[in-house]
Amino acid sequence: MAGNRTFTMIKPDAVESNNIGNITQMISDAGFKIKAMKLTQLTKGQAEEFYAVHNERPFYGELVEYMTSGPIVAAVLEKENAVIDFRNLIGSTDPNEAEEGTIRKKYAESKGRNAVHGSDSDENAQIESNFHFNENELI
Ligand code: IDP
Ligand code: MG
User: What is the C-alpha separation between 79 and 75, in angstroms, rounded?
Assistant: First the structure.
């Protein structure tokens, strides 16, 4: 069913600051069902590929370094209107611009180290889920 799944990562800063539980609770409280979840660490190659769309941007090197700096939690979430509702739950890329009550407002350190990833389209949600999980890991 299109439109009911998104992909997220709890990024290295939020894992390091012991906020996996708090962030997962916010995700559950907002009505998302967890369909797959794992603690893992990205290789440089994986981070470069995942963020390839940004490879011309000035922050690309910093982004790859940050995303490989420690463990992350990768997860697939399900809810009606998942992509848009999850982007609203995480808030703006820069926590200084994120609304009160959003995950980034609460837990992000900066525009770069911003606690969580959320897919920006149904198509990317599927690509990103498949990047991190095999078919038999997705329920
Ligand atoms: P998004 O995560 O809100 O979709 P994107 O523009 O897709 O934001 O950027 C991907 C990630 O790259 C951001 O979540 C953040 O970690 C990092 N990033 C974006 N802009 C900057 C910046 O100006 N400086 C440093 N890192 C950035
Ligand atoms: Mg994005």
Answer: 13
